[in-house]
Write a structure and sequence with these properties.
Helix content is 55%, strand content 17%. It is an alpha/beta fold.
């Protein structure tokens, strides 16, 4: 509930601190005393539109602070947690209005946006009055109010879960269908790629190993060429061995003629031939060990070319070709299985829709029954409020084609103010006074279901008196047994039924304390005071009699207070 209200420098209010309690609290006072300022201040603190003209003249800013005592299960706790705001047993809202039009807001001393402030404020207070901008009866909330009244909130929450399940199943089938369609467009390409890559049979690390082998063989090729050239020089067509052998044979034929001269030359040539023969053997061995096979080098280069061409084609490195092969093969396998998978997903989406549609239809029927009960309950409250010829109608419009997480129903509260007239939305058809009384009847019926813990009514008794005003007072008192009620009123019948009575008055403020003030010479300020039983009787008598309070008015006030007790 709203535990306290503090206002600083807002319009005519210089300084105001109020402690509030449970039950019905009325605020009374003469016209122009500042009752509307009080409500404008509360509205500002709850996220209402700021206005620099609200700041008291001559001050840089004004401030409104509201303190609420929260029960452990109050929905504001969840809002605070979601907004990462301090969550305590007492919630303090502070709104500062600058004279230049800017505003600042804080919850438990943590800065908040106006949107978050409004969300929190809506869970704490409902402000009802004769003006549409204050009624806070948004058609968007009517469905939730009807569900709360009919005990359908859990069923509505379950339906929301069915809606999410249907949406997720539908999206899964849609995504699979899109994937299948995209895959089918590339099916020929994928099959060709799989055939090509499978035939290639690339292995991880193969390109690196072949490159190293190719480099080694290219080095061996150069060595083999040098060895071949040397071997050709030693044992080839230009080899000196045949010439030296012929020379040795000729010299040996001449050896008998001059043995001493020829023998050393022959021996030297023989040694040279032996050396050349050894060199040829060494060269042949080295050439065999050079590990160069031209056809193998050709095969390696062809393999490297094929691997690198495939890598360029698929925009990967040669080492990634095996993974590309696996991926394409998997896609091809998926493609073969996608139709069966899509059929399963379509079936799941159809079943999810069937469950949702069934739940939505059942909830629609339950809402229709709850609407009839709500109409009857609200209708029973109307005659005492001088709306005996009026009719309250909960209009439930079902449209399966426009279903959503809340179901297929649009709910709006309609009224018919006179027999034979056309019914219409309550906010459009009812006049200011009628609207206030319709809202009062509705809130009495919904007091323990779908209501904020604090309700503020702004002059809902305007234009009525006597028995109707008393009926309004009775219903406000009944309402205050379940929620905290604050009411600005001009009706003594309403004031007499309050548990707490606050008087709003406008006083002149002297520049020098305790100095006399001439009329019109000093600024004024609005003050609020809690009335004692004696002063309360006097205020109710004033409300009955007007400017001059008579003994008859005081006696009438006593009767009202006694009847209220």
């Amino acid at each position: 509930m709203l535990a306290s209200l503090s206002i600083r420098d807002i319009v005519l209010i210089e300084k105001l601190d109020l402690t509030l309690s449970e039950g019905l609290t009325v605020l009374t006072g003469e016209t122009g005393a500042g009752k509307s300022i009080l409500l404008d201040s509360v509205s500002l603190a709850l996220g209402g539109r700021g206005d620099g003209t609200l700041v008291r003249h001559g001050q840089p800013n004004g401030q409104v602070t509201l303190a609420f005592d929260l029960t452990p299960d109050h929905p504001a706790h969840a809002i605070l947690t979601a907004a990462d705001l301090p969550d305590e047993d007492q919630l303090i809202i502070r709104r500062t209005q600058m004279a230049d039009g800017r505003t600042r807001a804080a919850v438990n001393d943590a800065p908040v946006s106006v949107q978050t402030l409004r969300q929190i404020g809506a869970s704490l207070v409902e402000l009802h009055g004769q003006h549409a901008d204050r009624a806070l009866v948004d058609p968007a909330t009517h469905r939730a109010l009807l569900d709360a009244y009919g005990g359908l909130s859990a069923e509505a929450a379950a339906l929301s879960g069915l809606w999410r399940a249907w949406r997720e199943a539908r999206e899964a089938a849609r995504d699979e269908r899109a994937r299948l369609e995209a895959a089918e467009k590339e099916a020929d390409y994928i099959r060709h790629a799989v055939e090509e890559l499978t035939e290639l049979g690339a292995e991880a690390g193969e390109e690196t190993a072949l490159s190293e082998r190719r480099s080694n063989m290219m080095r061996s090729e150069k060595i083999a060429a040098d060895l071949s050239e040397a071997l050709d020089a030693v044992a080839g067509g230009s080899s000196p061995i045949p010439s030296l052998s012929a020379a040795v044979r000729r010299l040996e034929r001449r050896a008998g003629e001059s043995q001493d001269v020829i023998r050393p030359a022959v021996e030297a040539i023989d040694q040279a031939l032996d050396a050349l023969e050894q060199a040829r053997g060494h060269l042949e061995t080295a050439l065999a060990d050079a590990d160069f096979e031209p056809r193998e080098l050709e095969r390696i280069e062809e393999r490297l070319f094929a691997l690198r061409a495939a890598a360029r084609k698929f925009s990967v490195t040669p080492d990634a070709l095996p993974e590309v092969t696996r991926r394409f093969s998997s896609q091809l396998e998926d493609l073969d299985q996608s139709e069966a998978r899509l059929a399963r997903l379509d079936a799941a989406a159809i079943e999810a829709e069937r469950s949702y549609r069934s739940g939505a239809e059942h909830l629609s029927q339950a809402r229709a029954a709850a609407a009839r009960a709500l109409d009857e309950a609200v209708g029973a409250e109307l005659p005492p409020l001088k709306l005996e010829r009026a009719e309250f109608l909960t209009k439930v419009t079902s449209d399966p084609g426009n279903a959503g997480p809340e179901g297929q129903d649009a709910v709006e509260f309609w009224v018919r103010t006179n027999p034979g007239s056309r019914p219409g939305p309550m906010m459009k058809v009812a006049s200011g006074g009628e609207l206030a009384r319709f809202l009062l009847a509705l809130k009495v019926v919904l007091a323990d279901r779908g209501s904020a813990p604090t309700l503020i009514f702004d002059e809902i008794d305007t234009g009525v008196g006597g028995a109707v005003a008393d009926a309004i007072g009775q219903r406000l008192a009944r309402l205050s047994q379940k929620v905290q009620v604050l009411c600005v009123t001009h009706a003594p019948q309403v004031a007499a039924r309050a548990h707490n009575h606050l008087l709003i008055a406008k006083d002149a403020v002297p520049a020098v304390p305790d100095a006399p003030v001439a009329p019109g010479e000093a600024p004024v300020t609005t003050r609020v005071a809690a009335l004692t039983p004696k002063l309360r009787r006097e205020e109710i008598a004033r409300m009955l009699a007007g400017a001059t309070v008579t003994n008859e008015a005081r006696a009438a006030a006593d009767r009202l207070l006694k009847a209220a007790r």
